[in-house]
Amino acid sequence: DGSSKVCRLRKSIYGLKQASRIWNQKLDLVLQSFGLTQSKFDSCVYFKIDGKSMLIVAVWVDDLLIFSNDRKLKKQVKLRLTRSFKMTDLGEAKSVLGFQLTRDRQAKRIWISQQHYIEEMLKRFHMDAANPVTTPMSNSEKFSKNQAPQTADERERMRKIPYQEAIGSLLFAAQVSRPDIAFAISSLSRFNNNPGMAHWTGVKRVFRYLRGTSSYKLQFDGLKAGPIHGYCDADWASDPDERRSVTGYIFVKCNGPISWCTKRQPTVALSTTEAEYMAMSSAAQEGLWLRGLSEEIEQSSQIPTQIFCDNQGARNLALNGAYQPRTKHIDVRHHFLRERIQAKLLAFTYIPTNRMVADSLTKALDVEKFSACIRCQGLRK
To answer: Which of 188, 298, 311, 343 places its Cα 20 to 30 Å from the Cα of 37?
Structure first.
């Protein structure tokens, strides 16, 4: 009626800014009332361990994945959830949040794929009929701010190109199931604010690579369930604009990748050793988090988490706390490595560069090296 009145709600309703938080609090109370414990390392993971029986619930807003080795316990939790919420049981997980899960129970293998998502993305950007290429980025390519539009006509032309939308779509694939495109997308995403045609050509090359590899999937082998281990690498001063180095790391469990990252380092490194040392620091942080999450659910490990690196100088710097004139300026936050090594939580082991699994996360490689690298990362056709 035009009067300035407000309606006081007695409970939350869908669409309010507080709704998602209140829903999460409600779900948390219900799950914990079943005897599940919320993980200290990932607030979206709940678990219950009762002797040899184990149950894990992974939460994504109102989608739940339930894992258990005890069918009776899993059935009890499902029944209690249906009493608390209006819930649909979709059965065995096959399609979740844009990716597909397939299993071979006899061989104890699981595959994760985003083939449907990738094929739809290629259609959306009119790249579904493009000629495939064998790598997502040419090993002779270096993207720079100097390739940004220089004239008004060039800027107007780039405004009509969905560059940011394409990068966002590709980032989702790179983060979920495609570590093979992670470096290329990380490099191209730096130019979101002012991309040029050279950058757009780089994006289209990634699309062309996905056109020929849309069926690639991550493979996890339950018969090779050893401890989590990682690989870390760096490419010194590879950024042509600011001369910052690139960090890349990947962690593996059951012969498949469970976490990977490629990013520019926050400061300029003065040497290859310094760049590798900072990469080891980043990998150590992720390794400690994965170790904590794993030990929270499984039995605590007395064995240090193994991280492989290919720089002897950086490894010696981490192991030896003695004064070094050439490295005395390195930020103290990177030196926590020594403390974690002494506590036997981490161990850094040298491997040759030709066996470095994280190599494709720091630089563009030729076809032969790239193919070998992504196979070691757990990608299968």
So the answer is: 343
Q: Residue 299 CA to chain centroid, in angstroms?
A: 25
In the chain, CATH 3.30.420.10 covers 225-380
Residue keyed to tokens 């129970």? 105
In the 8-state DSSP scheme, what is residue 209? H
Over the chain (381 residues), what is each successive 10-residue block's mean pLDDT?
81 87 94 96 95 94 94 95 93 92 95 98 98 97 95 95 98 98 98 97 99 98 92 96 97 97 95 94 97 89 94 90 64 79 95 97 97 96 89
Contacts of 222 (CB under 8 A, 6+ apart): 108, 109, 110, 254
Whether CATH 3.30.420.10 fits 225-380:
yes
User: In CATH, which of 3.40.10, 3.30.310, 2.60.40, 2.120.10 is domain 1-91?
Assistant: 3.30.310
- pTM listed for this prediction: 0.93
- In DSSP notation, 159-204 reads HTS-HHHHHHHHHHHHHHT-GGGHHHHHHHHTTTTS--HHHHHHHH
Count Cβ atoms below 10 Å from residue 38 Cβ, excluding itself. 15
Helix (H, G, I), strand (E, B) or coil at 119: helix
What's 273-310 look like in SS3? Answer: HHHHHHHHHHHHHHHHHHHHHHHHHCCCCCCCEEEEEC
